């Protein structure tokens, strides 16, 4: 379920305090796409080396632009923002899930619950009179690397 659950996918956007209006609009459109899928989005706003000096009012405008885009996407803040305006700031948002995705996730959870109930067979067989077979071969990702 984790692979298909859009709430488990975290997208990160990095924005400079000195971002221009057009660039901010482009980033916000990208963020809205992520949120529309139900993804979580982390927005990092920070200064960069050699960045022009930005007045506090412009910095607050960037934060308001992000919050406005989140409202337009119908998303919500899932974790309180950290940091402060003018330094580095992280904001955390969760997109809404559409009905189709909610139904799919609910069905997957029900299927997992049913599978868990089937696994509780006390005599060690799989419920069909056969014993469960466990693969004893070593996994490739556990083998040590060869050094040349």
Keywords:
single chain; 148 residues; Translation Initiation Factor IF3; four-stranded mixed β-sheet; 3 helices; 36% helix
Give an overview in words:
The protein is α+β, with helices and mostly antiparallel strands and 148 residues long. The chain has a domain at 6-94: Translation Initiation Factor IF3, CATH 3.30.110.10. It has 3 helices and 4 strands. The protein has a 4-stranded mixed β-sheet with strand order 1-2-4-3, covered by helices on one side. Helix 1 (21-36) links the parallel strand 1 (10-16) and strand 2. Helix 1 (21-36) runs parallel beside helix 2. It starts with 9 loop residues before the first strand and ends in a 30-residue tail after the last helix. The mean pLDDT is 80.
Strand content of the residues, in percent?
15-25%
Low-confidence stretches are none
Globally, the shape reads elongated
DSSP summary: helix tally? 3
Query: What's the rounded overall pLDDT mean?
Result: 80
Biggest beta sheet summary: 4 strands, mixed
């Amino acid at each position: 379920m984790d692979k298909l659950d859009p709430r488990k996918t975290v997208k990160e956007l990095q924005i400079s305090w000195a971002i221009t209006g057009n660039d901010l609009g482009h980033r916000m459109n990208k963020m809205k796409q992520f949120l529309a899928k139900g993804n979580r989005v982390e927005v990092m706003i920070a200064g960069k080396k050699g960045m022009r000096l930005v007045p506090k009012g412009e910095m607050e405008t960037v934060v308001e632009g992000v919050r406005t885009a989140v409202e337009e996407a119908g998303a919500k803040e899932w974790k309180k923002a950290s940091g402060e305006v003018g330094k580095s700031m992280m904001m955390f948002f969760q997109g809404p899930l559409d009905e189709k995705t909610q139904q799919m996730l609910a069905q997957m959870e029900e299927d997992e619950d049913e599978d868990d109930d089937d696994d509780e067979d006390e005599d060690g067989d799989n419920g069909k009179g056969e014993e469960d077979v466990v693969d004893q071969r070593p996994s490739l990702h556990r083998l040590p690397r060869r050094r040349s």
